[in-house]
Every structure is written in structure tokens, then in C-alpha cells.
Amino acid sequence: MKPSSGSSMLRPTRAALFALAVVLALLTVFPLFWMVSSAFKGPDEVNSVNLIPAAPTLDNFRYVFTEVPFLRYMLNSLFVATVVTVAALWFHSMAAYALARLRFPGRDLLFFAIFSTLLVALPIILVPLFILVRELGMLDSYAGLIVPAVFNAFGIFLLRQFYIGMPKELEDAAFVDGCGYWGVYWHVILPLSRPILAALAVFFFLANWNSFLWPLTITQNQDLWMIQVAISSFQTQYAGAWNYIMAAATVAAIPTMALFFVFQRQLVESIKTSGFK
Amino acid sequence: MSAGASETPRRGLSRKHREWLAAALFVAPDALGLLVFLGVPMVLALGLGFFEVTGFGGISFAGLDNYRKMFADPLFFDSLKVTVLYVVGFVAGVFVVSLGLALLVRQKIPFVGFFRSLFFLPHVVSLVVVGLVWQFMLTDGVGVVNQVLESVGIGGRSWLGDPQLALGTVVLVSIWFFMGYYMIIFLAGLQEIPREYYDAAKIDGARAWQLFRHITWPLLKPTSFFVLLVSTITGVAGLQAFDLIYVMTKGGPANSTSLGIFYIYQQAFQFNDYGYAAAMSSFLVLLLLAATALMFVLTGGGRFETE
């Protein structure tokens, strides 16, 4: 991303734009800063407007991890998000490979059918999906949290786009070496798609770590709660105890922000591609 | 893990048929999964409204009962009104804000990459966290927003407690959450515009506003359409709005933030009236299609490929 050519721009204008950017950035980040700052404040200070806690304390975090099985909720989320991400990348890359590189009857029709599921949003199908999952006996289970979350056309779509652009020579060389279709997929296609798989992995992991409506709908058993469901219930349980709630929110948000700062290039690339292919 | 795609012709298949078999096996997991967990529910979503579904699996045909109930339910129509207000406010707001941010972070200013990251940051945090944080900041009396406003002489308001304000507050928080995402989409669109156009226009003495009006705006149309379309679908379907409403207002005060999708959720999962919820879902699907069609008409064609 290169800045646009604005070499003739006057200095005062640029200074004003810089000042504007600073103000907007501060406004944008303030709520997140406030969350973290309040998480370190005691119950007496949490409603004050001190930017930095006058008497910083770790009590809220201690409370969140000892009085509530918060670690369990985080591990649930970690487990579900990881399994969904790995399964999704595996299935999507296989499907995308076939759709992009193999020839078979009905291929375009199949792709169109898969593509059209992009328009199906969870809230619209929430009730029938819930009933279906109930009939399959997957309510209140890890399977119910994981399996329906694996399938979405977005990943297939991006990977297919990526595979279409690959040179055919690499595949041919592998065939000559005696590889079958599986061998080509495993030894040629997958290693070459490492960058895009990394981008999608970050994307899927974040989406599942942050997902709320589906886990809320199908888990009653508190042992299966994912972190977002847990912190939303915190709010009713500890109404007004904002120091605890902000500590819980901070713990839930820190991993996502950390992932973003480490992988922001990949994340931004996958968003850009989603808009233009 | 042999996917049955070994290339030895042991089953007497021709090369062509082996390719078909391999493709079928590669596609099968995803195709089946999408069919079962998206395709079937989608069909059910349109049909289930004609049935009575009770909490424990009893299903009986109910004809048009659910739809009759729906058309006689003022709360349903209120929730549609809220949905339309939310979508209009959100789509217009996020369009202007994210385009503005994209134009800003295209300028030659110091640390521009850092600013881009900061504007995007809210989007990686979960909506439950977002809802909690904003609710905390907007709490009546003790919230930091009101305290700051009062300190500069503006009376505090009940941002989430006043039926006149609550929906607007939810719209603003939604915009805050999404502006970085659409900023990235707009940035990608801006990059597609050849720099030569600007250089030529500048030689002719065009000013910044003219550059925007005559080059950026027309050439950005495909991106603009894409943003309008996606934000409208997001708004109507309401996956994100649901999380915020659930955390911040529970549809209140006085149902002023009860989006269609939230009302449907309540009917299904608080009152166990799945058939009625499905009937309303199918109506929402129609609304979604209508909004999409309207978008195509309003934008005159609505192609969003960039050549």
C-alpha cells in the first residue's frame, strides 16, 4: 500500500491532515484503552475518569480466573476455534483444488451452488439449523459447536481463486514423478498455498474465537461455554461490577488484538481479496 | 491417507474417470457439509413457517397460521421498522466514515501505516466485548462519556436508556466496529485507479475536490456498490447487530432496538415458538432480497467487477 502521489500538497494541509488522523485515531482507540485501564482499577476507582489507574491492581484478573472457571471457557474457545480452523482449511483447500484444477462434469454448476451459499447468513437459518442439530443429537456438545462452523464458502472461494492462477507445470512435473491426485494436492498444492492458508487461518481463528450467536444458541451446559458466551453472562451476574467485567473483556480481547498486530498483513490481504474477485 | 486417487489403473478406470473420481472425493466433505448445514436449513427456513414446531421435536402442519399471526403482530412490524432504520443509518454512516478514512490514510502523512492499523483495530475485537465496553462507557450517571460531556457543560444523556437515542447509539457503535473493515475495501478500490489520471488532471490545474468529484468518485463506483451491498446484507441479516443488541439493550428500551432478527430469536429461544420464528425468518429473507434488488436499481446496474 503506497501513499498516493500528492507531492504538490502544501505543507500546512499535510499538517492539518496529520492532526486530523491523530484525533480520529485517539477517538477510535479510546474505548479499548478504557477497557484495559478500567480492568486495573479497584471497585472504588472504576467509575472515576482517571485515564491511568491511581491505584493499579491485579485483583480483578485474579478474581476472574479463580472465582469463575474462566480458564476453562478460554480453553473451550481455543479448542473449538483451532479444530474448526484446521478442518476448514483442510476441506476448503481440497474442494478448491478440485474446483480449480480438475476437470469433471458439473464443475461450474457446483461452484455456482457453493458460491450462492455466501448469501446465507446464520441468523436467517438459525432456527432450522438449531432444529437440525438437535435432531442429529449434537446439542450441548463440542461436535455441535464445531461441525456446523466448519462449512463456509468464503474460504473455498478465495482458495479456488488462488489455485486458478497457479502454473500448470508444477502439477505436471509431480504427475511425471508418479504422484496421484492426492500426491499432487499434498506435496505440491498445499506447500505452495502456505501464505494464503496462513491468512485464512488467522481469519477463521478470529471469527470462531469471537463467535457468539451459535454457541449461545446450542450450549446450556456451562462446561461447554465459549468465552464470548461466558463474558456476556458475566454482565448479568455481576451487573455494575465493571472492574470485573472489564478484566474479563480484556482477557477475551487481548489474544485477538495480539493476533492482529502479528498477522495484520495477512489479515488485510484476505479482506482485500474478498472484495475483488 | 489415500483418497482413492492413486494413479495406478488397477480398477480399470480410464484417466478421465479417475480424474472424476478424484474430484468427487476431494469435493465431497465440503459439498456435503454445505448441503447439510447451509442448504437444508435454507430450504427449511422457507418451509418451516407452515408448521407448528414445539420444544421437543413435535412438528405438525399449521397451514398459514404462523403467517396470519405475523401479519396481526404489531411487535413484528415494529421490529421491521427498527430493522429498516438501523440498516439505513448503518449503511449510510459506515459508507461515509470508511470512505473518509480510506481517503485520509492514502495521504502522505507520517506514520500512515500505523494509523491504518489503529482504525482497523476495533474490528478484531469481539462484538460481545465491544458491546460491554460501550455499555460501560455510556452508563447513566457514571459512564465516562457523560462525565466528560458534563465537564464541558453539555448535559449527559441516557444513551441506551432513552428510546429516542438507543437505536442511534447502537448504529454508532456498529459504525465504529465496521469502519476499519470497509476502509480496507475502499483502499483496495482506490489502488485500482491509475495514478496517471490524477497527474494529468493536476497538470490541468484541478483542485482536490475536483479530483475527487471527477476521477475518484466515478472510478470507485464498483467498490462503492460492493460496500453498499455487503453492508446492507450485513445489516438486514444482523449477525453483528444481534450480538450488540443482546449485550447492550436486549431490544429495549420500549422495543426501540428490537431488530427483526432479535425478535425472531426471542420467539424461538425464549418462547419456543419455532414455527412462528421460521415464518418471520422467511419474511426477512424476502426483505433481504428486496433490499438487494433495490440496491441494484439505485446504483444503476450494480456491476462490481473492476474490469
From TrEMBL, chain B:
PANTHER family: ABC TRANSPORTER PERMEASE PROTEIN (PTHR30193), DIACETYLCHITOBIOSE UPTAKE SYSTEM PERMEASE PROTEIN NGCF (PTHR30193:SF41). Residues 80-295 form the ABC transmembrane type-1 domain. Its main location: membrane. PROSITE patterns: ABC_TM1. Keywords: Cell membrane, Membrane, Transmembrane, Transmembrane helix, Transport. GO terms for cellular component: plasma membrane. The keyword Membrane applies. It is found in: Cell membrane. The keyword Cell membrane applies. The chain crosses the membrane at residues 20-38, 84-105, 117-137, 165-188, 225-248, 274-298. It comes from uncultured Rubrobacteraceae bacterium. This is ABC transporter, permease protein 1 (Cluster 1, maltose/g3p/polyamine/iron). Belongs to the binding-protein-dependent transport system permease family. GO terms for biological process: transmembrane transport. It is a multi-pass membrane protein.
